[in-house]
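To close the chapter, one final illustration. This time we ask the reader to focus less on the individual chains and more on the assembly as a whole: which components sit near each other, and how the overall shape emerges from the parts.
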Amino acid sequence: MIISARRSLRHLLLPLLCMGVATLGLASTVQAASTPLPRVVTADGRHQLQVDGKPYLILGAQVNNSSGWPQMLPAVWPAIEALHANTVQVPIGWGQVEPTRGQFDFSFLDTLVTQAREHDVRLVLLWFATWKNNGPNYAPSWVKLDNKRYPRVVKKDGSTLGSLSPLGTATLEADRNAFVALMKHLRQIDGDRHTVIMVQVENESGTYGSDRDYSAAGDKLLQSPVPAAVLKKTGKSAGSWSQVFGKDAAEYSYAWAIAHYIEQVAAAGKAVYNLPMYANAALRDPFNPGPPGGYSSGGPTDNVIDIWRAAAPSLAFVSPDIYMREYKKYTAVLDRYSRPDNALFVAETGNDTAYARYVFATLGHQGIGFSPFGMDYTRYSNWPLGAKAITPETIQPFAANYELLAPLAGLIAKQSFEGKVWGASEPDDTHEETLDLGDWRVQVSYGRPQFGMDPPKGNEQKLGGVVIVQLATNEYLVAGYHARVNFMPPKGHDGQHFLLEKVQEGRYDENGQWHFIREWNGDQTDYGLNLTSQPQVLRVKLATY
Ligand code: DGJ
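The assembled structure is written out below.
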């Protein structure tokens, strides 16, 4: 509610502000000088995305694959508004912008940026080019129909696949050239505003059906020396890919080839307009992956993150696209992509209710953002990966989370970088877990009555989730849904007398100002802090006695 009101106010003010800017004339120059580029910063193994020089948490949404067209945008914005998203990921297809070699048409990008500003959201562009889920369907016809100039991956038996080879030098040159043209245009139209905050380079790169490219170039690569950056990252001694990596050499050398290709595209784009860039992964099963080629071989899957980080230093991070509803699998993926050398951004996730709660676990893994896929009203559903239909009802559980988190987003991004954010999502089969905050522990349980100590049974729909943010010594912000939160003394201090000195319910406004509503006490605190279906935000002060 609060957010919608704020947004409508901005809608009213925006045209007036723009008129003011036009009258002053100088304003955009002033802004260009004063607003730093979006960037990802890393310190002490933690990461922060900064937009306009301030910590930024992506409460994102990705549109469907064929929604990146002017006439589809009216079906996009109502869903984004209902969701309370602050950032929208939209594809820009290579074939769409360069249908004829050397002739560019960025009119959709112009429309998109203008409308995103009108709707008060930021954008992440998705460069669908050499790879869109393994194949080149978004490449122009002059690329995808010219096998000689733009070679495809060769299988062990000599047949070819749909996937383009990362060893095709003309392919790299053509893709890089188009990407540079895109980034140049983007800098021209948005270099002073940064409506676009980040760019994904390619989409779910890799190849299904083969572990590597068995062309002569692929064979040669396998016998060539492993680059120094990969040796350093993996702690291996010098040798060829086959010598150093043995049975994994085919996949690892192929991962290096794709990452190196994408590195060259990203680096050239950053040279003209230095926005943060990343690559996303079609995941393998975290516990039973099967052989490469059964999953998208060479893409940034969890087993080759080291190779990707070494081969593609221009990428700020590699991201998981998580379409696994199971708690164990989902959180295993979060564990694997949240690393001191890799910021966690859930670049895509499913859009039905089961996935909504995972925004909290993502925050608990120091995530810089979360983005359900297919969030528009173009009447497409990618069920069984996601919801059967995208309606206001489908969007609701995600919207509730974003409505709760939006006013806290800057604070969460700031404190997360300091290691002061914890998060939990409701598991599938167990109903409680303990978070270690260092100074305190917190037991989070799901599916309990508000009164009394009955054991947790789990919620009927797995919607429970909690985020905890440390504000000061012994002071925490607690927010979430469908969960009970019980603070406890830290490890090794069981039995220590303590109490909830004060529990305030309130809300943050858009300037980060706290507005007190009431104190919780008595039944509201005796058995723990019971978060319900309401978007409640609590400030909790603890004390010992
Ligand atoms: C993952 C891809 O990255 C998306 O573009 C989309 O194809 C989804 N899979 C499936 O809907």
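The two ends are 40 Å apart (CA to CA). The pocket of DGJ is lined by residues 65, 133, 203-204, 321, 348, 373, 382, 385 (CB under 6 Å). With these observations in hand, you are ready for the problems at the end of the chapter.
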